[in-house]
Write a structure and sequence with these properties.
Elements lengths: L12 H30 L3 H30 L3 H28 L1
Helix pairs in contact: 1-2, 2-3
């Protein structure tokens, strides 16, 4: 104990494996989403493009569970606050992308 707080201990191997596993799932599914989106822009058939782009959305949802579980692990007893900050960051990024798109269309 140091000033009423517990001194952080080094991560155990099981913690490292758990975090790495969650990060790998998120990274692979995000890359898979990007591959689907790029492939969807190259498809000539509209029904096939819809299927490919839906695969991209599905791949993105695969990574969502990793994001929430890591925020719960990082937050510990304050997991609600951490997930709220994560959600707010996503909304700010979404809003910024929308404004950027609008400003690029006006030029």
């Amino acid at each position: 104990m140091l000033a009423g707080r517990r001194v952080a201990q080094p991560y155990e191997l099981v913690d490292i494996v758990r975090y790495a596993g969650r990060c790998i799932v998120a990274a692979v599914s995000t890359v898979l989403c990007a591959v689907f989106l790029v492939a969807g822009t190259q498809v000539k058939s509209v029904p096939f493009a819809v299927i490919v782009l839906a695969g991209g959305a599905g791949a993105l949802y695969l990574s969502q569970s990793s994001f929430w579980s890591v925020s719960a692990d990082v937050g510990g007893s304050s997991a609600g606050a951490v997930s709220g900050v994560m959600n707010m960051g996503a909304r700010l990024a979404e809003r910024s992308a929308h404004r950027l798109r609008l400003s690029s269309q006006q030029k």
